[in-house]
Write a structure and sequence with these properties.
- The chain is an alpha+beta fold.
- It is built from 18 helices and 22 strands.
- The mean pLDDT is about 90.
- β17 (about 465-470) and β18 form a beta hairpin.
Length: about 525
Protein backbone atom coordinates (compact mmCIF):
# COMPACT_ATOMS: atom_id res chain seq x y z
CA UNK A 1 0.00 0.00 0.00
CA UNK A 2 2.88 2.35 0.74
CA UNK A 3 4.23 2.10 -2.82
CA UNK A 4 0.78 2.47 -4.35
CA UNK A 5 0.05 5.47 -2.12
CA UNK A 6 3.27 7.08 -3.29
CA UNK A 7 2.34 6.41 -6.91
CA UNK A 8 -1.14 7.86 -6.41
CA UNK A 9 0.32 11.04 -4.89
CA UNK A 10 2.81 11.47 -7.73
CA UNK A 11 0.23 11.19 -10.51
CA UNK A 12 -2.27 13.40 -8.71
CA UNK A 13 0.22 16.19 -8.10
CA UNK A 14 1.45 16.60 -11.66
CA UNK A 15 -0.12 17.51 -14.97
CA UNK A 16 2.92 16.28 -16.90
CA UNK A 17 2.15 13.22 -19.03
CA UNK A 18 5.79 12.16 -19.02
CA UNK A 19 6.00 12.43 -15.23
CA UNK A 20 2.91 10.27 -14.81
CA UNK A 21 4.22 7.65 -17.20
CA UNK A 22 7.60 7.60 -15.44
CA UNK A 23 5.92 7.18 -12.03
CA UNK A 24 3.90 4.25 -13.37
CA UNK A 25 6.96 2.60 -14.92
CA UNK A 26 8.87 2.91 -11.63
CA UNK A 27 5.95 1.34 -9.77
CA UNK A 28 5.76 -1.59 -12.20
CA UNK A 29 9.50 -2.20 -11.79
CA UNK A 30 9.25 -2.34 -7.99
CA UNK A 31 5.81 -3.81 -7.20
CA UNK A 32 5.05 -7.54 -6.91
CA UNK A 33 2.88 -8.98 -9.69
CA UNK A 34 -0.14 -9.19 -7.36
CA UNK A 35 -0.04 -5.43 -6.87
CA UNK A 36 0.71 -4.70 -10.53
CA UNK A 37 -2.47 -6.40 -11.72
CA UNK A 38 -4.57 -4.53 -9.17
CA UNK A 39 -2.97 -1.20 -10.04
CA UNK A 40 -3.80 -1.81 -13.71
CA UNK A 41 -7.36 -2.75 -12.77
CA UNK A 42 -7.90 0.33 -10.63
CA UNK A 43 -6.48 2.69 -13.23
CA UNK A 44 -8.71 1.15 -15.93
CA UNK A 45 -11.89 1.54 -13.84
CA UNK A 46 -12.19 -2.05 -12.63
CA UNK A 47 -12.91 -1.18 -9.03
CA UNK A 48 -13.88 -3.57 -6.24
CA UNK A 49 -17.50 -3.35 -5.17
CA UNK A 50 -18.58 -1.49 -2.05
CA UNK A 51 -18.56 -3.73 1.03
CA UNK A 52 -19.41 -1.21 3.78
CA UNK A 53 -22.22 1.34 3.57
CA UNK A 54 -21.22 4.99 3.57
CA UNK A 55 -23.68 5.62 6.42
CA UNK A 56 -21.69 3.32 8.69
CA UNK A 57 -18.37 4.77 7.57
CA UNK A 58 -19.54 8.27 8.45
CA UNK A 59 -20.83 7.13 11.82
CA UNK A 60 -17.61 5.28 12.72
CA UNK A 61 -15.36 8.08 11.47
CA UNK A 62 -17.17 10.69 13.58
CA UNK A 63 -16.93 8.37 16.59
CA UNK A 64 -13.20 7.75 16.13
CA UNK A 65 -12.54 11.45 15.54
CA UNK A 66 -14.58 12.28 18.65
CA UNK A 67 -16.74 14.85 16.87
CA UNK A 68 -20.55 15.12 16.63
CA UNK A 69 -22.27 13.79 13.53
CA UNK A 70 -23.43 17.27 12.46
CA UNK A 71 -19.84 18.55 12.45
CA UNK A 72 -18.70 15.61 10.35
CA UNK A 73 -21.54 16.20 7.89
CA UNK A 74 -20.70 19.90 7.61
CA UNK A 75 -17.06 19.00 7.00
CA UNK A 76 -18.11 16.50 4.37
CA UNK A 77 -20.22 19.15 2.66
CA UNK A 78 -17.26 21.55 2.48
CA UNK A 79 -14.65 18.98 1.45
CA UNK A 80 -17.02 17.39 -1.06
CA UNK A 81 -15.50 13.90 -0.93
CA UNK A 82 -16.31 11.29 1.74
CA UNK A 83 -13.00 9.40 1.52
CA UNK A 84 -11.01 12.61 1.87
CA UNK A 85 -13.19 13.91 4.71
CA UNK A 86 -12.64 10.75 6.75
CA UNK A 87 -8.89 10.83 6.09
CA UNK A 88 -8.73 14.45 7.27
CA UNK A 89 -10.81 14.24 10.47
CA UNK A 90 -9.27 11.07 11.93
CA UNK A 91 -6.46 11.44 14.49
CA UNK A 92 -2.91 10.73 13.28
CA UNK A 93 -1.94 7.06 13.28
CA UNK A 94 0.34 5.95 16.11
CA UNK A 95 1.58 2.82 14.33
CA UNK A 96 1.91 1.57 10.75
CA UNK A 97 0.25 -1.50 9.23
CA UNK A 98 2.35 -2.88 6.39
CA UNK A 99 0.21 -4.82 3.92
CA UNK A 100 0.37 -5.00 0.16
CA UNK A 101 -2.28 -3.43 -2.06
CA UNK A 102 -3.57 -6.84 -3.12
CA UNK A 103 -3.82 -8.00 0.50
CA UNK A 104 -5.89 -4.94 1.46
CA UNK A 105 -8.26 -5.48 -1.44
CA UNK A 106 -8.64 -9.18 -0.66
CA UNK A 107 -9.58 -8.38 2.94
CA UNK A 108 -12.00 -5.67 1.80
CA UNK A 109 -13.80 -8.12 -0.51
CA UNK A 110 -14.11 -10.66 2.32
CA UNK A 111 -15.92 -8.12 4.52
CA UNK A 112 -19.06 -8.40 2.43
CA UNK A 113 -20.21 -11.53 4.27
CA UNK A 114 -19.36 -10.21 7.75
CA UNK A 115 -21.73 -8.54 10.20
CA UNK A 116 -21.39 -4.85 11.07
CA UNK A 117 -19.48 -5.40 14.30
CA UNK A 118 -16.73 -7.30 12.47
CA UNK A 119 -16.63 -4.65 9.77
CA UNK A 120 -16.31 -1.91 12.38
CA UNK A 121 -13.44 -3.60 14.19
CA UNK A 122 -11.63 -4.14 10.89
CA UNK A 123 -12.07 -0.59 9.58
CA UNK A 124 -11.07 1.09 12.85
CA UNK A 125 -7.96 -1.09 13.08
CA UNK A 126 -7.12 -0.24 9.47
CA UNK A 127 -7.64 3.51 9.91
CA UNK A 128 -5.48 3.48 13.04
CA UNK A 129 -2.56 1.88 11.20
CA UNK A 130 -2.43 4.04 8.06
CA UNK A 131 -1.36 7.60 7.38
CA UNK A 132 -3.67 10.20 5.83
CA UNK A 133 -2.89 9.40 2.18
CA UNK A 134 -3.15 5.65 2.70
CA UNK A 135 -6.46 6.05 4.54
CA UNK A 136 -7.80 8.10 1.64
CA UNK A 137 -6.98 5.32 -0.82
CA UNK A 138 -8.37 2.65 1.49
CA UNK A 139 -11.61 4.61 1.86
CA UNK A 140 -11.88 4.91 -1.93
CA UNK A 141 -11.41 1.16 -2.30
CA UNK A 142 -14.01 0.41 0.37
CA UNK A 143 -16.64 2.72 -1.15
CA UNK A 144 -15.97 1.56 -4.71
CA UNK A 145 -15.24 5.14 -5.74
CA UNK A 146 -11.56 4.96 -6.68
CA UNK A 147 -10.71 7.37 -9.48
CA UNK A 148 -7.45 8.97 -10.52
CA UNK A 149 -6.36 11.38 -13.24
CA UNK A 150 -4.82 8.76 -15.51
CA UNK A 151 -6.25 7.82 -18.87
CA UNK A 152 -6.12 4.30 -20.22
CA UNK A 153 -3.79 5.64 -22.90
CA UNK A 154 -1.23 6.56 -20.21
CA UNK A 155 -1.49 3.12 -18.61
CA UNK A 156 -0.99 1.56 -22.03
CA UNK A 157 2.03 3.74 -22.70
CA UNK A 158 3.60 3.00 -19.30
CA UNK A 159 3.08 -0.77 -19.63
CA UNK A 160 4.46 -0.70 -23.15
CA UNK A 161 7.56 1.09 -21.90
CA UNK A 162 7.94 -1.24 -18.91
CA UNK A 163 7.46 -4.45 -20.91
CA UNK A 164 9.12 -3.10 -24.09
CA UNK A 165 6.04 -4.07 -26.08
CA UNK A 166 4.14 -2.11 -28.73
CA UNK A 167 1.38 0.02 -27.19
CA UNK A 168 -1.30 -1.39 -29.51
CA UNK A 169 -0.73 -4.92 -28.16
CA UNK A 170 -1.00 -3.66 -24.58
CA UNK A 171 -4.21 -1.78 -25.38
CA UNK A 172 -5.76 -4.94 -26.83
CA UNK A 173 -4.84 -7.03 -23.77
CA UNK A 174 -6.45 -4.49 -21.45
CA UNK A 175 -9.81 -4.79 -23.18
CA UNK A 176 -12.59 -7.13 -22.16
CA UNK A 177 -14.14 -8.62 -19.08
CA UNK A 178 -11.20 -9.59 -16.87
CA UNK A 179 -10.77 -9.29 -13.12
CA UNK A 180 -7.67 -9.40 -10.86
CA UNK A 181 -9.57 -11.88 -8.70
CA UNK A 182 -9.15 -14.54 -11.37
CA UNK A 183 -6.48 -13.13 -13.72
CA UNK A 184 -2.78 -12.78 -12.92
CA UNK A 185 -0.40 -10.17 -14.28
CA UNK A 186 1.44 -12.85 -16.23
CA UNK A 187 -1.78 -14.19 -17.78
CA UNK A 188 -2.94 -10.73 -18.80
CA UNK A 189 0.32 -9.22 -20.00
CA UNK A 190 2.78 -12.02 -20.77
CA UNK A 191 0.87 -15.16 -21.69
CA UNK A 192 1.56 -16.58 -25.17
CA UNK A 193 -1.97 -18.04 -25.18
CA UNK A 194 -3.51 -14.58 -25.23
CA UNK A 195 -5.59 -15.26 -28.35
CA UNK A 196 -7.43 -18.01 -26.50
CA UNK A 197 -9.55 -15.28 -24.91
CA UNK A 198 -12.11 -15.43 -27.73
CA UNK A 199 -14.38 -12.82 -26.22
CA UNK A 200 -11.78 -10.03 -26.09
CA UNK A 201 -12.62 -6.90 -28.12
CA UNK A 202 -10.20 -4.41 -29.64
CA UNK A 203 -9.66 -0.83 -28.41
CA UNK A 204 -12.08 1.49 -30.19
CA UNK A 205 -10.81 4.12 -32.60
CA UNK A 206 -12.39 7.46 -31.64
CA UNK A 207 -12.71 10.56 -33.79
CA UNK A 208 -12.19 14.19 -32.90
CA UNK A 209 -14.72 16.86 -33.78
CA UNK A 210 -13.76 18.64 -37.00
CA UNK A 211 -11.88 21.80 -36.12
CA UNK A 212 -10.85 23.16 -39.51
CA UNK A 213 -12.24 23.97 -42.93
CA UNK A 214 -13.01 20.87 -44.97
CA UNK A 215 -10.62 22.01 -47.67
CA UNK A 216 -7.80 21.84 -45.12
CA UNK A 217 -8.22 18.06 -45.09
CA UNK A 218 -7.01 17.95 -48.68
CA UNK A 219 -8.68 16.52 -51.75
CA UNK A 220 -12.17 15.10 -51.22
CA UNK A 221 -11.08 12.12 -53.33
CA UNK A 222 -8.93 10.83 -50.45
CA UNK A 223 -11.79 10.75 -47.94
CA UNK A 224 -14.94 8.73 -47.31
CA UNK A 225 -18.07 10.03 -45.63
CA UNK A 226 -20.97 8.26 -43.94
CA UNK A 227 -23.76 9.37 -41.67
CA UNK A 228 -22.92 9.52 -37.95
CA UNK A 229 -25.48 7.35 -36.19
CA UNK A 230 -26.96 8.13 -32.79
CA UNK A 231 -26.85 4.74 -31.11
CA UNK A 232 -24.58 2.61 -28.94
CA UNK A 233 -21.08 2.17 -30.35
CA UNK A 234 -20.24 -1.51 -30.25
CA UNK A 235 -18.07 -4.37 -31.43
CA UNK A 236 -19.64 -7.54 -32.74
CA UNK A 237 -17.38 -10.55 -32.17
CA UNK A 238 -18.01 -13.92 -33.79
CA UNK A 239 -15.28 -16.44 -32.97
CA UNK A 240 -15.44 -20.22 -32.83
CA UNK A 241 -19.22 -20.19 -33.15
CA UNK A 242 -19.70 -17.87 -30.16
CA UNK A 243 -21.11 -14.35 -30.16
CA UNK A 244 -19.95 -11.46 -27.99
CA UNK A 245 -21.27 -7.91 -28.30
CA UNK A 246 -19.37 -5.18 -26.46
CA UNK A 247 -20.32 -1.55 -25.88
CA UNK A 248 -17.69 1.16 -26.08
CA UNK A 249 -17.71 1.29 -22.30
CA UNK A 250 -16.42 -2.31 -22.29
CA UNK A 251 -19.74 -3.70 -21.13
CA UNK A 252 -20.81 -7.07 -22.50
CA UNK A 253 -24.34 -6.55 -23.82
CA UNK A 254 -24.82 -9.77 -25.82
CA UNK A 255 -27.91 -10.91 -23.92
CA UNK A 256 -29.64 -7.53 -24.12
CA UNK A 257 -30.01 -7.70 -27.90
CA UNK A 258 -31.01 -11.29 -28.69
CA UNK A 259 -32.18 -10.46 -32.24
CA UNK A 260 -28.58 -9.56 -33.11
CA UNK A 261 -27.60 -13.20 -32.56
CA UNK A 262 -28.79 -13.83 -36.14
CA UNK A 263 -26.06 -11.59 -37.65
CA UNK A 264 -23.65 -14.48 -38.48
CA UNK A 265 -26.37 -16.45 -40.33
CA UNK A 266 -24.93 -17.39 -43.71
CA UNK A 267 -21.39 -16.27 -42.82
CA UNK A 268 -18.82 -19.06 -42.60
CA UNK A 269 -15.97 -16.88 -41.35
CA UNK A 270 -14.97 -15.60 -37.92
CA UNK A 271 -15.01 -11.82 -37.65
CA UNK A 272 -14.93 -8.72 -35.45
CA UNK A 273 -16.97 -5.78 -36.71
CA UNK A 274 -17.08 -2.22 -35.39
CA UNK A 275 -20.41 -0.47 -35.65
CA UNK A 276 -23.45 0.96 -33.92
CA UNK A 277 -26.42 -0.66 -32.22
CA UNK A 278 -29.47 1.27 -33.42
CA UNK A 279 -33.16 1.17 -32.68
CA UNK A 280 -34.47 0.63 -36.21
CA UNK A 281 -37.98 0.42 -37.61
CA UNK A 282 -39.33 0.40 -41.17
CA UNK A 283 -35.92 0.99 -42.76
CA UNK A 284 -34.97 4.00 -40.69
CA UNK A 285 -33.41 4.68 -37.28
CA UNK A 286 -35.62 5.51 -34.33
CA UNK A 287 -34.76 8.29 -31.87
CA UNK A 288 -32.21 7.46 -29.20
CA UNK A 289 -34.92 7.73 -26.53
CA UNK A 290 -36.34 4.43 -27.79
CA UNK A 291 -32.99 2.69 -27.50
CA UNK A 292 -32.68 3.97 -23.93
CA UNK A 293 -35.59 1.71 -22.97
CA UNK A 294 -33.37 -1.27 -23.70
CA UNK A 295 -30.00 -0.01 -22.42
CA UNK A 296 -30.79 -0.59 -18.76
CA UNK A 297 -32.43 -3.98 -19.28
CA UNK A 298 -30.32 -7.07 -18.63
CA UNK A 299 -33.13 -9.21 -19.97
CA UNK A 300 -35.74 -8.09 -22.48
CA UNK A 301 -39.24 -9.36 -23.08
CA UNK A 302 -40.96 -10.05 -26.38
CA UNK A 303 -42.99 -6.84 -26.21
CA UNK A 304 -39.91 -4.65 -25.80
CA UNK A 305 -38.16 -6.45 -28.67
CA UNK A 306 -41.23 -5.84 -30.83
CA UNK A 307 -41.63 -2.20 -29.80
CA UNK A 308 -37.93 -1.33 -30.05
CA UNK A 309 -36.29 -3.56 -32.69
CA UNK A 310 -32.56 -3.10 -33.16
CA UNK A 311 -29.96 -3.60 -35.88
CA UNK A 312 -26.18 -3.61 -35.92
CA UNK A 313 -25.02 -0.89 -38.32
CA UNK A 314 -21.57 -2.08 -39.46
CA UNK A 315 -18.90 0.34 -40.61
CA UNK A 316 -15.51 -1.28 -40.08
CA UNK A 317 -13.85 -4.71 -40.05
CA UNK A 318 -11.23 -5.30 -37.37
CA UNK A 319 -10.57 -9.03 -37.63
CA UNK A 320 -11.25 -11.74 -40.19
CA UNK A 321 -10.64 -15.45 -39.55
CA UNK A 322 -8.35 -14.68 -36.63
CA UNK A 323 -6.26 -12.16 -38.57
CA UNK A 324 -5.97 -8.61 -37.26
CA UNK A 325 -7.12 -6.28 -40.07
CA UNK A 326 -6.47 -2.98 -38.30
CA UNK A 327 -3.18 -2.31 -40.08
CA UNK A 328 -4.88 -2.34 -43.49
CA UNK A 329 -6.21 0.87 -45.03
CA UNK A 330 -9.81 1.86 -44.48
CA UNK A 331 -10.46 1.29 -48.19
CA UNK A 332 -9.17 -2.28 -47.90
CA UNK A 333 -11.10 -2.98 -44.71
CA UNK A 334 -14.26 -1.52 -46.20
CA UNK A 335 -14.02 -3.79 -49.25
CA UNK A 336 -13.63 -6.85 -47.02
CA UNK A 337 -16.53 -5.67 -44.85
CA UNK A 338 -18.79 -5.33 -47.87
CA UNK A 339 -17.97 -8.89 -48.95
CA UNK A 340 -18.64 -10.19 -45.43
CA UNK A 341 -21.93 -8.29 -44.98
CA UNK A 342 -23.20 -9.55 -48.35
CA UNK A 343 -23.00 -13.12 -47.00
CA UNK A 344 -25.22 -12.47 -44.00
CA UNK A 345 -28.83 -13.59 -44.28
CA UNK A 346 -29.85 -11.58 -41.25
CA UNK A 347 -32.07 -8.52 -41.49
CA UNK A 348 -30.40 -7.25 -38.33
CA UNK A 349 -27.02 -6.57 -39.97
CA UNK A 350 -26.94 -3.38 -42.05
CA UNK A 351 -23.91 -1.96 -43.81
CA UNK A 352 -23.42 1.75 -43.23
CA UNK A 353 -23.60 3.33 -46.69
CA UNK A 354 -20.80 5.50 -47.99
CA UNK A 355 -21.93 8.86 -49.35
CA UNK A 356 -20.96 9.65 -52.89
CA UNK A 357 -19.34 13.07 -53.22
CA UNK A 358 -16.70 14.58 -55.46
CA UNK A 359 -16.19 17.85 -53.62
CA UNK A 360 -16.76 19.19 -50.10
CA UNK A 361 -19.73 21.37 -51.12
CA UNK A 362 -21.80 18.22 -51.65
CA UNK A 363 -21.41 17.38 -47.96
CA UNK A 364 -22.12 20.96 -46.89
CA UNK A 365 -25.51 20.72 -48.57
CA UNK A 366 -26.25 17.22 -47.30
CA UNK A 367 -25.51 17.95 -43.64
CA UNK A 368 -28.58 20.17 -43.59
CA UNK A 369 -30.59 16.93 -43.88
CA UNK A 370 -28.90 15.29 -40.90
CA UNK A 371 -31.68 15.76 -38.35
CA UNK A 372 -34.33 14.82 -40.87
CA UNK A 373 -32.42 11.57 -41.45
CA UNK A 374 -32.14 11.12 -37.65
CA UNK A 375 -28.36 11.30 -37.64
CA UNK A 376 -25.88 13.55 -35.85
CA UNK A 377 -23.91 14.56 -38.93
CA UNK A 378 -21.02 12.88 -40.76
CA UNK A 379 -18.07 10.63 -40.05
CA UNK A 380 -15.12 11.50 -42.29
CA UNK A 381 -12.43 8.82 -42.72
CA UNK A 382 -9.21 8.98 -44.67
CA UNK A 383 -9.26 6.13 -47.19
CA UNK A 384 -5.61 5.33 -46.44
CA UNK A 385 -6.03 5.24 -42.64
CA UNK A 386 -5.41 2.21 -40.43
CA UNK A 387 -7.71 1.49 -37.48
CA UNK A 388 -5.93 3.10 -34.52
CA UNK A 389 -6.27 2.85 -30.73
CA UNK A 390 -8.24 5.47 -28.84
CA UNK A 391 -8.69 9.09 -29.86
CA UNK A 392 -6.20 10.22 -32.49
CA UNK A 393 -6.24 13.30 -34.70
CA UNK A 394 -5.72 13.29 -38.43
CA UNK A 395 -7.50 10.36 -40.05
CA UNK A 396 -11.01 10.23 -38.55
CA UNK A 397 -13.18 13.26 -37.89
CA UNK A 398 -16.78 13.69 -36.75
CA UNK A 399 -18.71 16.59 -38.22
CA UNK A 400 -21.83 17.11 -36.15
CA UNK A 401 -24.72 19.42 -36.79
CA UNK A 402 -24.93 22.44 -34.53
CA UNK A 403 -26.68 21.65 -31.23
CA UNK A 404 -30.10 22.90 -30.25
CA UNK A 405 -29.93 25.98 -28.03
CA UNK A 406 -32.35 27.75 -25.74
CA UNK A 407 -32.10 30.62 -23.24
CA UNK A 408 -33.06 29.71 -19.67
CA UNK A 409 -33.06 31.27 -16.20
CA UNK A 410 -30.91 29.83 -13.42
CA UNK A 411 -33.10 28.92 -10.43
CA UNK A 412 -30.94 26.66 -8.22
CA UNK A 413 -27.23 26.17 -7.59
CA UNK A 414 -25.27 23.42 -5.88
CA UNK A 415 -21.63 23.12 -4.85
CA UNK A 416 -19.25 20.94 -6.77
CA UNK A 417 -16.96 18.21 -5.45
CA UNK A 418 -13.24 17.76 -4.94
CA UNK A 419 -11.26 20.85 -5.95
CA UNK A 420 -14.53 22.64 -6.74
CA UNK A 421 -16.15 21.93 -3.37
CA UNK A 422 -16.11 25.65 -2.49
CA UNK A 423 -17.63 26.71 -5.80
CA UNK A 424 -21.17 26.45 -7.12
CA UNK A 425 -20.85 24.42 -10.33
CA UNK A 426 -24.12 22.46 -10.67
CA UNK A 427 -27.07 24.53 -11.81
CA UNK A 428 -30.78 24.07 -12.43
CA UNK A 429 -32.61 26.10 -15.07
CA UNK A 430 -36.21 27.06 -15.76
CA UNK A 431 -38.37 28.27 -18.66
CA UNK A 432 -41.49 30.43 -18.50
CA UNK A 433 -44.91 28.78 -18.66
CA UNK A 434 -48.16 30.42 -19.81
CA UNK A 435 -48.90 31.67 -16.29
CA UNK A 436 -45.59 33.54 -16.16
CA UNK A 437 -43.90 31.11 -13.76
CA UNK A 438 -40.53 29.46 -14.18
CA UNK A 439 -40.70 25.68 -14.59
CA UNK A 440 -37.56 23.61 -14.05
CA UNK A 441 -36.57 21.75 -17.20
CA UNK A 442 -32.89 20.77 -16.99
CA UNK A 443 -29.63 20.78 -15.05
CA UNK A 444 -26.14 21.53 -16.36
CA UNK A 445 -22.70 21.70 -14.79
CA UNK A 446 -20.22 22.32 -17.60
CA UNK A 447 -19.47 25.10 -20.02
CA UNK A 448 -18.28 27.98 -17.82
CA UNK A 449 -14.68 29.04 -17.33
CA UNK A 450 -13.02 28.90 -13.91
CA UNK A 451 -13.31 32.69 -13.67
CA UNK A 452 -17.05 32.51 -14.45
CA UNK A 453 -17.56 29.75 -11.87
CA UNK A 454 -15.91 31.98 -9.27
CA UNK A 455 -18.02 34.96 -10.29
CA UNK A 456 -21.34 33.11 -10.21
CA UNK A 457 -20.40 31.46 -6.89
CA UNK A 458 -19.86 34.85 -5.27
CA UNK A 459 -23.23 35.95 -6.61
CA UNK A 460 -25.00 32.81 -5.34
CA UNK A 461 -23.68 33.35 -1.80
CA UNK A 462 -25.12 36.88 -1.78
CA UNK A 463 -28.44 36.06 -3.46
CA UNK A 464 -29.62 32.76 -1.96
CA UNK A 465 -33.34 32.77 -1.13
CA UNK A 466 -33.62 29.33 0.53
CA UNK A 467 -31.46 26.29 1.20
CA UNK A 468 -32.52 22.70 0.71
CA UNK A 469 -29.58 20.71 2.04
CA UNK A 470 -26.73 21.30 -0.44
CA UNK A 471 -29.02 23.07 -2.93
CA UNK A 472 -29.48 26.85 -2.91
CA UNK A 473 -32.56 28.49 -4.41
CA UNK A 474 -31.44 31.80 -5.94
CA UNK A 475 -32.99 34.95 -7.31
CA UNK A 476 -34.11 34.20 -10.90
CA UNK A 477 -32.19 36.94 -12.66
CA UNK A 478 -29.38 35.31 -14.67
CA UNK A 479 -29.93 33.96 -18.18
CA UNK A 480 -27.76 31.21 -19.69
CA UNK A 481 -27.78 29.76 -23.18
CA UNK A 482 -28.16 25.98 -22.88
CA UNK A 483 -27.00 23.69 -25.67
CA UNK A 484 -28.22 20.11 -26.09
CA UNK A 485 -28.10 17.31 -28.64
CA UNK A 486 -31.65 16.01 -28.48
CA UNK A 487 -35.02 16.34 -26.82
CA UNK A 488 -37.77 13.90 -25.91
CA UNK A 489 -41.07 13.83 -24.08
CA UNK A 490 -40.84 12.85 -20.42
CA UNK A 491 -43.53 12.05 -17.89
CA UNK A 492 -40.99 12.15 -15.06
CA UNK A 493 -40.22 15.84 -15.48
CA UNK A 494 -42.59 18.65 -14.59
CA UNK A 495 -41.66 20.42 -17.81
CA UNK A 496 -42.73 17.40 -19.88
CA UNK A 497 -39.37 17.22 -21.69
CA UNK A 498 -35.91 15.74 -21.13
CA UNK A 499 -32.73 16.91 -22.86
CA UNK A 500 -29.81 14.87 -24.11
CA UNK A 501 -26.30 16.11 -23.16
CA UNK A 502 -27.32 19.54 -21.83
CA UNK A 503 -24.48 21.97 -21.13
CA UNK A 504 -23.99 25.69 -20.67
CA UNK A 505 -23.00 27.34 -23.93
CA UNK A 506 -22.59 30.86 -22.55
CA UNK A 507 -23.70 33.25 -19.84
CA UNK A 508 -26.11 35.73 -21.46
CA UNK A 509 -25.37 38.82 -19.41
CA UNK A 510 -26.94 40.85 -22.21
CA UNK A 511 -30.38 39.40 -21.50
CA UNK A 512 -32.95 39.97 -18.78
CA UNK A 513 -34.85 37.01 -17.25
CA UNK A 514 -38.03 37.98 -19.07
CA UNK A 515 -36.12 37.54 -22.36
CA UNK A 516 -35.60 33.81 -21.70
CA UNK A 517 -37.49 31.21 -23.70
CA UNK A 518 -40.77 29.55 -22.79
CA UNK A 519 -41.83 25.93 -22.36
CA UNK A 520 -43.83 26.32 -25.54
CA UNK A 521 -40.62 27.27 -27.39
CA UNK A 522 -38.81 24.12 -26.37
CA UNK A 523 -41.81 21.86 -26.99
CA UNK A 524 -41.90 23.16 -30.55
CA UNK A 525 -38.55 21.38 -31.04
CA UNK A 526 -40.31 18.07 -30.43
CA UNK A 527 -42.21 18.65 -33.66
CA UNK A 528 -39.08 19.18 -35.76
Amino acid sequence: MKAFSTLFTKVEQTTSTNAKVQALVEFFHEAPDEDKIWAIALFTHRRPRRTISTTLLREWAAELANIPAWLFENSYHIVGDLAETIALVLPANEHQIDKSLSQWITEISELKKQDDSVKKDWIITAWSGLNKNQRFILNKLITGGFRVGISQRLITKALGKYLEVDDSKIAHRLMGDWSPFDTSFEELMLSQDFKDAISRPYPFYLAYAIEKELEDLGSADTWSAEWKWDGIRGQYIYREGEIFIWSRGEELVTDRFPELHTVPNGINENFVIDGEILAYYEDQPMNFQHLQKRIGKKTVGKKLIKDVPVVFMAYDLLELNGQDMRHKTFAERRSLLEDLASQSKSEHLILSKLIEFNDWDVLRKLIKEARERKTEGFMLKNLASPYRNGRKKGDWWKWKVDPYTIDAVMTYAQRGHGRRANLFTDFTFGLWNEEGNLVTFTKAYSGLTDVEFQEISRWVRRNTLERFGPVNAVKPVHVFEIAFEGIQESRRHKSGVALRFPRILRWRKDKKPEDANTLEDIKQLLQE
